[in-house]
Specification:
The chain is α/β, with parallel strands linked by helices. It has one domain (6-223): Rossmann fold (3-Layer(aba) Sandwich), CATH 3.40.50.150. The protein has 8 helices and 9 strands. A 7-stranded mixed β-sheet has the order 5-4-3-6-7-9-8, sandwiched between helices. It has a two-stranded antiparallel ribbon with strand order 1-2. The protein is globular. 42% of the residues are buried.
Length: 225
Amino acid sequence: MADTCIKPLSLAWLTAANTHRYSYNFTWLGVPIIQFPQDILAIQEIIWKVRPELIIETGVAHGGSLVLSASILEMTGGGEVVGIDIDIRPENRARIEAHPMFRRIRLVEGSSVDPAVFSRVAAMAQEKASVLVILDSMHTRDHVLRELELYSGLVTAGSYLVVLDTAIEDMPDGFFPDRPWGRGNSPKTAVHEFLRTNRRFAIDYELENRLLVTTAPDGFLKCLK
């Protein structure tokens, strides 16, 4: 999108929508999915293009994102989703396990940056021809940077490392008074620090510019090699 007026308007809308918990309005195949519709479409596009054998997602919440990934994999004809969360609540686990797409989902309870958890997930990624990673757990700079350092090595060439909620950095100061993250301490700050030393990844601005409204500005990282 060449119109430079659109981007600030999109950010203003995103900021206003976030004050009303807009991302909590949606479901995917009957399961709550805490995502903006534009990002749901973006993830769908990426999965369809990459055709990963394994998708690793940090952050489970209600399970809608896992079901989204699993349902697209169902249509590509193969693949599995691994969902990692430090606390998978019993009602959410029950909902996920009862869903028809659960046959493509594996749940791992524990911190995504715990060495034992990472080792377990890394073993699942061994010998997979294509691996996609989506980071959406704790949104502090230190946590996301550690996730990037760990999970980036599992992403295969041509696939993506998606970092959600980088838009936290673009929100006004004090926008998250009850959270440990905010401007200067966000997924986007982690992404930019990561990219200063890692040359395997580059931001896919073409995808971001088509979305216009996204919670992941600078967060769609394509694996180049």
